[in-house]
Amino acid sequence: MTEQQTVTVRRAPKVGAFISTFAALGFVVSTIITLFFPANGEVGIGETIGYMSVYGIGIGATVGALIFLLIDSRGTVGSGVAEFSASPATGDAGAGVGDAGAGVGDGGSGASAS
Question: What 3-state class would DSSP assign to 24?
Answer without folding.
Answer: helix
